[in-house]
Amino acid sequence: MAKTLIDIPDDLMEQARQVTGGATKTETVRTALRLLVRQQQQHDAIAWFADNDVFLTDDELKAEAERSRDQ
Question: What InterPro entries does its record include (predicted)?
């Protein structure tokens, strides 16, 4: 693991710590980076679903729910 020296404004670090619940600066930064990556992955997945038209219509959802209840 590489060490990286960066300047982070104190107020931004404190805000990030409150959001992530990090006890240390290192924990806060790691958690914030993980959250950023996860957010991008979720965005990409949603875009893929939208681009590939895999969402069900309300009628399809209702029909699927009825089929599940009947089983």
Answer: VapB_antitoxin
Look at the pTM and tell me if it is higher than 0.85.
Answer: no
CA 62/CA 71 separation, integer angstroms: 15
Per the structure, the complete domain to which residue 55 belongs is given by: 38-71
Assigned domain for 46 exists: yes
Radius of gyration in angstroms for the set of CA atoms belonging to the chain, rounded to a whole number: 21
DSSP label at 39? H
**Residue whose pair of structure tokens reads 């107020």 in the numeric block:** 11
Alpha-carbon 2 to chain mean position? 25
Please state, rounded to an integer, the average pLDDT across all residues of the chain. Answer: 91
